[in-house]
Amino acid sequence: MENLLSSSASHDMLPDSFVFPPDQRPPASTTAAVALPVIDLSLPRDEVRRAVLDAGKDLGFFQVTYNTHYFSISSSVFNLFALAWLGWPTLTTNAFVAQVVNHGVPEQAMRDMESSCSEFFRLPASDKSAFYTEDTDKPNRLFSSTVYGAGGERYWRDCLRLAVPFPLDPAARDAWPDKPAGLRPAVQAFVPAARALGMELLRLLCEGAGLRHDYFEGDLAGGDVVVNVNHYPPCPEPERTLGLPPHCDRNLITLLLPGSVPGLEVACRDGWIRVPHVPGAFVVNFGHQLEIATNGLLKSVEHRAAANAGVARTSVATFIMPTEDCLVAPAAELVGGEGGGNPARYRAVTFREFMRVYKTVGARREAVEKAFKI
C-alpha cells in the first residue's frame, strides 16, 4: 500500500523512479487538441456501418456520446481539416477517430460509474488495503506505479482492475470492493450496457467489412470483461513523467470513459493528438485482436496518458476480451482475394499465447507486430 500514489494527500516532488528519459517525455510542442468527427447511430443502418468502417480505416480511435446536438461528419472531411490545421502530411492509416451519438448507454449509469470510481480512490487506505496486491494473476486487484520497460521507470497511475464475467454471477459481484456503497451497483449497471455498445459496433464493422454479422460473437468476445479504473493524482512535475506510456491494447475493442480532465493522447505520425473532453462521450479504440482478425484492415493504435499538476483524473476503461483458449486468426473472408493479392498478414495465435508474448515483449506496437506478423 505504500506504493499507492493516492494514499498521499499531495506530492511535493517527483521521485526519481518516475522520471522518464527526455526522449520519452511528453513533448508539449507536438501535442494538439482536435475535435473528433461524429457518427450518429440513429441514422439508417447502411449509412452508419459505412461511416463506421470508413472512419475505422482512417485513425483507429473514435468517440461515442449520448448528446444528440452534434452533427455527423465524414472521416474524409475531418482528415482534410485535421491535416491542414496540424500541418502533417498524412495521418496514421487504418485507424479510427470519430464521435458517435445515440449510443444507448444511460447517462445516469455513466455518471454513477464515474462518481463511484472517483470516490473509491478518496477512501482511507484501510478501506482499500484488502484489494492491494502485486500479484498480476488476481482478476480483481488494486495496484500502482507499474514498472515500464527495461529502464525501470514507473508511471504515475493507480489502478483498480475488476473482472466482470457474462452472464454475471453473485460470486463475481461479491469479489468487487464493497466500498463505496455505490460501486458494485454502478459496475453492475454500467458494464453490461457498455459491452452491448461494443458488440453493436463490432456488428457494424462486420457488416461493413463483409463478415457475417455475428463473427465476433462467441469466444472472440466471450472472455471476462476487464474494467480498469485508472487514477492519476496531481503530479508535481508532469512534464517529466507519464500517466501511461505509449502502448496498444491487447484486447478486441476498448470503451473508455475518459473523465472530465483531459489526458488521453493518440499517436499520429510524429506527434500526438490530445483528445478533448466531450460530455457524455466514450472514447473507443481497437485492440490487437481486432487487427489480427481483420488482417490489418483495422489497426490497434498507440496511445498514452499524460499527467497533470492541477487536479486528479479518473478514467474507466472497459475491455472486451476473447476467451483464453480462443484461436485468433485473420478472417478467411479477408484473406486471398483475386489472384491471392491479400495474403494473411498475421499468424494464428490463441489469446493465452498472445498474452504470454505481449507480457514478454512489451506493449509497444512495433514489438507486438514483430512477434505476430508474417
TrEMBL record:
Domain of life, per lineage: Eukaryota
Positions of the Fe2OG dioxygenase domain: 222-322
Keyword tags: Iron, Metal-binding, Oxidoreductase
One of the record's GO molecular function terms: oxidoreductase activity
Alphabetical list of InterPro entries matching this protein: DIOX_N, IPNS-like_FE2OG_OXY, IPNS-like_sf, Oxoglu/Fe-dep_dioxygenase_dom, Plant_2OG-oxidoreductases
Cross-referenced Gene3D superfamilies: B-lactam Antibiotic, Isopenicillin N Synthase, Chain (2.60.120.330)
Family to which this protein belongs: Belongs to the iron/ascorbate-dependent oxidoreductase family.
PANTHER family: OXOGLUTARATE/IRON-DEPENDENT DIOXYGENASE
Protein name stated in the entry: Fe2OG dioxygenase domain-containing protein
